[in-house]
Structures are given as C-alpha cells and as structure tokens.
Amino acid sequence: MDQSTGKEETHIATNFNMPQLSLTMTEGTIASWLKIEGDHVEVGESLVEVETDKVNIVLESPVQGRIHKILAKTGSVIKVGEPLCIISGAEENLSTGQEARTTSAPGGTASTAIEYAKTQAGSSDKLKEERRKFLLSPAARRLAKEKGLDPRKLEKIFGDYKRRITSEDLSEWLEQKPKMTPLAAKMAEELGISADSLPKTKDQRITARQIELLSQEAVGKQIDRSAQIKTGYKTEATRQKLTGIRRMIGERMLQSKSTAPHVTLNREIDVEDLTRLIEKMNRDWGMKGIKFSLTHFCVLAGARALELNINANSSLEGEELVTWKEINIGLAVATDRGLMVPVIKQANLLTVLEISKTSAELTQKARSGKLMLDQLQGGTFTVSNLGMYGVDSFTPVINPPEAAILGINRNVQKPVVLDGQVAIRRMMCLSLSFDHRILDGAEAAKLLADIARPLEEPYSLLQ
Known about the structure:
The protein is α+β, with helices and mostly antiparallel strands. The chain folds into 3 domains: 14-131, CATH 2.40.50.100; 176-230; 262-462, Chloramphenicol Acetyltransferase. It contains 11 helices and 19 strands. The strands form 5 sheets. The chain has a 6-stranded mixed beta sheet with strand order 10-19-18-17-13-16, with helices on one face. Strands 3-6-8-1-9 form a 5-stranded mixed beta sheet, with no helix packed on it. The chain is globular and about 75 Å long.
C-alpha cells in the first residue's frame, strides 16, 4: 500500500521500452525526464518527453508503481524496443540483473530515459539537478537555453513557486523591466547602461552599488578585448552535437536526395488578381481573426491539381507503386526545433476558408510543440513557402516517401506585356520538385500547369 495515495501498487517489475510511434521511426531522443528515481507514478501519468523523427511527445506510464531505475540519459538516442526505465512496486527490492516484465507506452506512445544513481555517494547533487530540471517545463527549458539563462539562478528566482514554471511564466518575467532604486536608475542613465542588460530578479531592486560594479566590469572587458586584438586574438568556434529533431531532419533529407532522383521545374505565374483577392478577403474577414495567404490558395490549387494527376499522389514501397485515394497536403513549418510538416487531411475537399483555419491551428501547434502524432502522418504531397524570405527560386527537397513537393517563392512587381501593352503586375515563381522514378517530365509539367492555372484565375478556387 502506498501511504501517500492509499492505493495498492504494482509489485511486478516492469521494463518500460521505447515503442515504435510511426512506420519510419527506428529510434527516439530523450528530451527530458519528468520523474526521478523513487517517484511514485500512476497509470497514464507523464514520465518522459521524447523527440522522434516526427514530433516531440510525452510518454505515459503503462503501470502503477515507483521508478526503480532510469536507464537512459537525457539527450541519448534510444532505439525502438530498448529499455528506458524500470518501474517496480513499493515493496520490491530488485537486485542488479534481476529480470523485469517488459512493456511499452500504451496507445503507441514512446519513452526514453536518464541514468543517475541516487543511492550512490554524491547522489544529492544529482538529485538536486533532476529536481531543477523538473522545476522548468520542457518549453521553459528551451526558452532559458535560447536566452542563455542559468537554471540555477532561475531556481533561486522562482524558488517560491508551488508548481512547474512554464514558458509563459518565463516570458512574462523576461519582459519585465528590472526594478532599480532611484539612485541606481540615475546612474544607469548617466553611464548609458540599458535596462535590458541588467540582471533580473523577481522581487529585489537593483542598487547603485550593483550599477557601479556592472560599469567597472564593462570597462574591464573592453580593455581585455583590446589587448586580445593587438596580440592577434582569434575567436573560437563552438561545437554542438547534432541531436534530436535536427539530426533526424538531416537523415531524412539525405535519404530523400540519395534515393529519389530529384528534378525541379520552375514556372512564373501572374498573381496580380490573386494578391488583390487575398487583400479583399483579409479586409472582410480580418475582424473575425481569420487571415488568408498565398500559401492557403497554393495548398488548395495543389490538392485539386492532384485530382487531375493522380499518379503524383503516389509513393514507392519496395517495387510497388502505391497510389493514395486521399489527398493530404503537408505544410512545411519552420520552428525553433527544426522543420515540421503537419498535414491538412483531404485538402481537395476543403474550402480556402477551412484550409486557412486548419493551417493556422497546425502552425500554432507546430511552433509550440503541441502537435499530435496523427497530425504529422499521412501526407501525400507537400507545400513549402520561402517567399517571405525574399527567395526567387529554390529546389525543394521531396518529403519521403511522397512523389513531389511544391515550392512557393516571393511575389514581386514586374513589367509584363498584357494584351499588347506593358503593365506592372505581381509575378511569382512556382518550383516543383518530383521523383523521376514515379513521374515523367511531361507528367510533372502538366501537374505544375494544373496548379498554376487556378492561381492565375483565383475566383475559380472559391467555387
């Protein structure tokens, strides 16, 4: 009986193994542990956050008991089927090497692990470190890392919190201006010290003495830097191991370029009418919080073009060509953790309004790390937009095992001949990469033409 919960605990030792969450998954990376050794867990309680080739996911405990042993470190790459931790009942005293029952996360979820010995000498420091990791949520830890914040200092600042610190808590704290005494504020203004450069505290005010010390430190750094330059000082590069989603993206891109013979076709189209239509729709719908973009129309045009070019909605599986009945469009989204491709299901059956709403929801979830696994699966064609970065043309890499990907470039005003007259029109280049094993050049050219036509006659996409 667990005295803290009054419930009977599992007395069968359980090996919690890394499950396979998708057909392409072979391994996962441990992002963070949410429990430490000795903690009680209930069935379905969050245990560990794992990065897969698709998404970050929090794995849940399949049984009730206590964390007897964590077997995988944070940041380690664990293959599918390998053990992550051992969960035992409260009265069990498992010896090293004793066998445990094996299980994986329920419902196709995954899990990974961290290894440290709480019972060994010096374990108190490791226990504090694990508690510190638990204080900050995974999103808050990523934000702290981006801002160069020391978790130890954050632990002191937020030490009175009775719950986990979220990224929203940390963002709110970062946006606050440091509190200073009147004399400190005057000294900072005279010395040209920006408030953003001052150390943040939760309640205490910065004193004049702290401003003085900061000024002396800044002068000292300038002197040191000048000396380094005179002696031929060279900056050193930083090295960071390629892990997690970034490594998985690299592997998939290498797989795509190595296995699929890429060919890219470019076609310039007139988007003057489409641009004006989007501006009008945004004026009409803007008050309702709905925004339309070129991407939404390209997704719809691409989905309807696939209806006319069904071979492009195919994949190669071994020596078989699989043609999919559903047309599901993947939308490439840049996030802080790398490229994510959430999927708009049956996009050919949707209106541009429904695509706009679905796209906004998926993009927000992708950037906040809240995508569900099924929102990343089932894509049959992908759309990627680099136009906002001023790109005129690029070669998009096919998202395996799909047959093609559409690249959207910037739209820019150009002089063109229209009905025998020179006119200034908004023009845009579409870039279509296709797998030449699945599509011939003529087939791909027809697909691109069928995408381009409704974009030049945009009102046809509203029908």
